[in-house]
Amino acid sequence: GESVGLHLPTLSVQEGDNSIINCAYSNSASDYFIWYKQESGKGPQFIIDIRSNMDKRQGQRVTVLLNKTVKHLSLQIAATQPGDSAVYFCAETGGGKLIFGQGTELSVKP
Amino acid sequence: DTGVSQNPRHKITKRGQNVTFRCDPISEHNRLYWYRQTLGQGPEFLTYFQNEAQLEKSRLLSDRFSAERPKGSFSTLEIQRTEQGDSAMYLCASSSDRAPQHFGDGTRLSIL
Fold this sequence. Notes:
The structure holds 2 protein chains of 2 kinds. Helices cover 0% and strands 54% of the residues of chain A. Chain A is mostly beta strands. Chain A has strands at 4-5, 10-14, 19-25, 32-38, 45-51, 56-58, 62-67, 72-77, 86-93, 99-100, 104-109. Chain A contains no helices and 11 strands. In chain A, a hairpin with a 6-residue loop joins strand 4 (32-38) and strand 5 (45-51). By secondary structure, chain B is mainly beta. Chain B has strands at residues 5-7, 10-13, 19-24, 31-37, 44-50, 53-57, 65-68, 75-79, 88-96, 99-103, 107-111. In chain B, strands 2, 4, 5, 6, 9, 10 and 11 form a 7-stranded mixed β-sheet that branches. In chain B, strand 5 and strand 6 form a beta hairpin. The mean pLDDT of chain B is 95. Chain A binds chain B through residues 4, 32, 34, 36, 41-46, 49, 89, 91, 96-103, and chain B through 4, 6, 31, 33, 35, 40-45, 48, 55-56, 58, 91, 93, 100-106.
């Protein structure tokens, strides 16, 4: 069936380093992808999105890369800060509902 | 605050009772979604509305669950005869043609 999954369930990085969070998706018909950040006790917070007609999109300190050939999505966070500590989810959609993966917990060491 | 608002934030109830949650979306968003999230998992889709029309329901949404969006603005999610397995975080999101889904902070339901 359709699924979105993450390769690494936990990631620990040093403050100031760059972080890379990976995601695999299985539905080649999906045309829109979103990364969310979720802090404890809060709802998912939109970070950045990308459509299937793009390979890369940059935001403030974040970059999303999409490789449709291998159905892979990644989120790069530059100069990771303690405030970036959270669970990160990728989500895909082909219209309407979002399908989420399990999430990666990012821990930033000072 | 112009984000998605959910009430209550926490609900504790006894098994067998009925509960109702409310979601107020971002005002210019015409689509509204309900998701359920359990510990350590990503949110799972339950149902969604475009304006007042309920367009899709997940198989997760048993007969005990009902959602409404009577005027195309706020929405309610009711669970009848709650069971232990209903304990979860219930999340609401809204979107439009020009905006991706933005989530509220959810209602955490605990069944005693």
